[in-house]
């Protein structure tokens, strides 16, 4: 039960962070789904930092990993919104933007993970 509460708290925090990122982009009304891309990038960046620090420098408890990785990063990143937005782009005839969204989400998320690991190694 303790682990469920930890994941619940981390996921809630991540979801609120995701909501705030989306709200920040609303004022610009971008044509491209930048809020989802930003959330996925930042979530992978945090994930990379936590994985690297817990593996090499910090003795991180399983509870802390559940809170940050499964909870926060799981709530902050958003595969379902990415999929919905991509299908919407395809449906509205914006094939180039849909393909760019797929490529950018994948490439930038992988790059963010590695960047997070590199940043963690500086500590």
TrEMBL record:
Pfam family name, one: CRCB
Alphabetized UniProt keyword annotations: Cell inner membrane, Cell membrane, Ion channel, Ion transport, Membrane, Metal-binding, Sodium, Transmembrane, Transmembrane helix, Transport
Transmembrane feature ranges: 33-54, 66-84, 96-120
InterPro entries the record matches: FluC
Residues bound to Na(+): 74, 77
Membrane topology: Multi-pass membrane protein
GO cellular component, one term: plasma membrane
Signal peptide location: none
Activity modulation notes: Na(+) is not transported, but it plays an essential structural role and its presence is essential for fluoride channel function.
GO biological process per UniProt: cellular detoxification of fluoride
Reaction(s) catalysed (UniProt annotation): fluoride(in) = fluoride(out)
Cell compartments where the protein resides: Cell membrane
GO MF annotations, alphabetized: fluoride channel activity; metal ion binding
Family recorded in the similarity comment: Belongs to the fluoride channel Fluc/FEX (TC 1.A.43) family.
UniProt function note: Fluoride-specific ion channel. Important for reducing fluoride concentration in the cell, thus reducing its toxicity.
Identification of the protein by name: Fluoride-specific ion channel FluC
Species assigned in the record: Hufsiella ginkgonis
Lineage of source species: Bacteria, Pseudomonadati, Bacteroidota, Sphingobacteriia, Sphingobacteriales
């Amino acid at each position: 039960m303790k682990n469920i509460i930890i994941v619940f708290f981390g996921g809630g925090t991540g979801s609120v962070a995701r909501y705030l990122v989306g709200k920040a982009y609303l004022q610009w009304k971008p044509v491209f789904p930048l809020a989802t891309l930003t959330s996925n990038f930042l979530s992978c960046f945090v994930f990379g930092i936590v994985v690297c620090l817990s593996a090499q420098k910090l003795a991180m408890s399983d509870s802390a990993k559940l809170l940050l990785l499964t909870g926060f990063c799981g709530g902050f990143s958003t595969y379902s919104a990415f999929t919905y937005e991509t299908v919407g782009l395809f449906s509205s005839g914006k094939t180039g933007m849909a393909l760019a969204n797929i490529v950018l989400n994948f490439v930038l998320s992988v790059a963010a993970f590695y960047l997070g690991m590199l940043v963690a190694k500086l500590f």
